[in-house]
From TrEMBL:
Organism per entry: Qipengyuania algicida
Molecular function (Gene Ontology), one example: metal ion binding
Domain of life: Bacteria
Name by which UniProt lists this protein: Group 1 truncated hemoglobin
Positions with a binding annotation for heme: 111
Keywords from the named record: Heme, Iron, Metal-binding, Signal, Transport
InterPro entries the record matches: Globin-like_sf, Globin/Proto, Hemoglobin_trunc
Length: 159
């Protein structure tokens, strides 16, 4: 009676920021180096991706497709999809040289505890490809972007 069990067990409730709708994360150093690669040069890819708004649609759609994808949906449960949509957009925008800074965490730390396998990555990449197809991104441009992301697989896959 009258015992605050959360307090007894040191459980801290994480409340979404009323402004951003995101769940706060532990402090880390923000840097574009966390994005995992350097941006492409030139403006041709940004143009082909439909600028920032096109890139945002692709990032958000990739997250939505993955949340609904029975192969990998369980991995996303209990993670903050509001934050992921924002940070994934920032990362894509930064890498495509569309004028964003990436403020998220680095790829290795972020995915370290998820136990991701190659099959999980393949599923995510397929969802990204579908998102890009839906936005009618030219195939060669899709592949240039995927080539930017590919080397990150070594930081993401842990088993
Ligand atoms: C090259 C491949 C990948 C890239 C570029 C990537 C990118 C990102 C980025 C930018 C974040 C946000 C980091 C932050 O919150 O500060 C993130 C988080 C996350 N990623 Fe990935 N990711 C990749 C692969 C995957 C795969 C294969 C899965 C699962 C199928 C996955 C699941 C997640 C989840 C659940 C989070 C949320 C983490 C959290 O809230 O703690 N990612 N990823």
């Amino acid at each position: 009676q009258g015992i605050d069990w959360d307090k007894q067990f040191g459980v801290e409730e994480k409340v979404r920021d009323p402004k951003t709708g995101e769940i706060p994360v532990d402090p880390y150093t923000q840097s574009n180096a966390n994005a995992g690669a350097s941006p492409v040069s030139g403006a041709s890819l940004v143009r082909q991706f439909g600028g920032k708004s096109g890139i945002r649609r692709i990032a958000e759609r990739t997250v939505e497709l993955s949340e609904a994808d029975p192969r990998i949906s369980a991995i996303f449960v209990s993670h903050d999809m509001v934050r992921l949509k924002r940070t994934l957009f920032e990362q894509f925008c930064y890498l495509l040289n569309a004028g964003c800074d990436y403020t998220g965490r680095d790829m290795k730390t972020t995915h370290a505890q998820m136990g991701l396998r190659k099959a999980d990555l393949n599923a995510l990449v397929e969802n990204l490809q579908q998102a890009m197809r839906e936005q009618k991104i030219p195939f060669a441009a899709q592949n240039r972007f995927l080539a930017k992301l590919a080397p990150m697989s070594k930081d993401v896959i842990t088993r």
